[in-house]
């Protein structure tokens, strides 16, 4: 059991190292995510306004 946990931990560490994204890409992803959220909020607000009118 201990060996399995050790192997899993090593695999997880290797995966996280392989998944390392450069800071520039991470910044781009964050900006994209923020823009997406802003658009969603705007759409939601417009929907509410249309419902209220």
Task: Report on the architecture of this protein.
One of its GO terms (biological process) is negative regulation of calcium ion import into sarcoplasmic reticulum. This is Phospholamban. One of its GO terms (cellular component) is mitochondrial membrane. Homopentamer. This protein is mostly helical. The chain has a domain at 23-53. The chain is built from 2 helices and no strands. The protein has helices at residues 2-18, 23-52. It starts with a helix and ends with a helix.
Features:
mainly alpha; elongated; 53 residues; membrane; PLB; mitochondrion; 2 helices; Phospholamban; single chain; phosphoprotein
Give a brief description.
This protein is mainly α and 53 residues long.
In total, the number of strands is 0
Principal-axis shape: elongated
What is the averaged pLDDT score?
87
Strand content: under 5%
Estimated structural class: mainly alpha
Low-pLDDT stretches are none
Pfam family, one: Phospholamban
Organism: Gadus morhua
Membrane topology: Single-pass membrane protein
Subunit structure: Homopentamer.
Helix/strand layout:
Elements: H1 2-18, H2 23-52
């Amino acid at each position: 059991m201990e060996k399995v946990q050790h192997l899993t931990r090593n695999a997880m560490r290797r995966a996280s190292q392989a998944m390392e994204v450069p800071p520039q890409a991470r910044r781009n992803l964050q900006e994209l995510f923020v823009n997406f959220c802003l658009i969603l909020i705007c759409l939601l607000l417009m929907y509410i306004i249309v419902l209220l009118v």
